Amino acid sequence: MPIRLPIFRKKVMEKLSSTEETKIMHVSDTPESVYRFLNGLIEKTEPDYIIHTGDLADNIKLERRPELKPLYVGAVRRLARVLKNSGAVLYIVPGNEDDPEVVGEFFEDSVVEPGTVVEIEGKRFALGHTWKDVVGLEADFKLYGHSFKLIERGLNGVLGVNFILLPSGETYRVKYPSGTDFDRGYKMWRGL
């Protein structure tokens, strides 16, 4: 199913779809409601790498509601299908709302601990769930999520889907669908 994009996203999508550069896609804190959007974005842009910085099923607050684990397992299973079918190299950082055993079951060797630094085509990427996991690390890019905090050289996956092109180092952000913050449970942020 093709994704429908507002006019302002078209130029970014054209660039991401047509570039010959290596594409790294970064997402974080994904409620189930965005899985279809992510699948369409992956089909359109064909990223070489996908980095998820935690809270894979962010509408299920497992940390506070452990009894929702069966729902969480089903959601992570669906997200794993989307991400694994992409053919991209995956890096998955568990977040505070994730069950590390479940994440490991579905993503195996793709799971990395918060604070891990990986090298992709000569650039260093610090990966964490929160900004505190990456702020003091030496890296060209610091990828994280969890809150709305911004840090120097940081890309926050809560604010949108980030794309990094290599070797140029250009970055682009594609907004999540409207209602994503509400689905994450951010009612205060929306003024409700």
Secondary structure blueprint with pairings:
Layout: H1 7-18, E1 22-27, H2 35-45, E2 49-52, H3 69-84, E3 89-92, H4 100-107, E4 116-120, E5 123-127, H5 131-134, E6 141-144, E7 154-156, E8 161-166, E9 171-174, H6 180-184
Parallel strand pairs: 1-2, 2-3, 5-6, 6-7
Antiparallel strand pairs: 1-8, 4-5, 8-9
GO molecular function, one term: hydrolase activity
Domain Calcineurin-like phosphoesterase: 23-107
InterPro entries: Calcineurin-like_PHP (IPR004843), Metallo-depent_PP-like (IPR029052)
Low-confidence segments, ≥5 residues, pLDDT <50? 1-7, 188-192
Distance between the termini: 32 Å
The level of helicity is 25-40%
Spatial strand arrangement across the major sheet: 3-2-1-8-9
CATH class of one domain: Alpha Beta
- Could you tell me the number of beta strands? 9
CATH architecture of one domain: 4-Layer Sandwich
CATH superfamily of one domain: GpdQ, catalytic alpha/beta sandwich domain
Give the percentage of residues in beta strands: 15-25%
What is the CATH T-level topology of one domain? Answer: Purple Acid Phosphatase, chain A, domain 2
Instruction: Give the overall shape, derived from the CA principal axes.
Output: globular
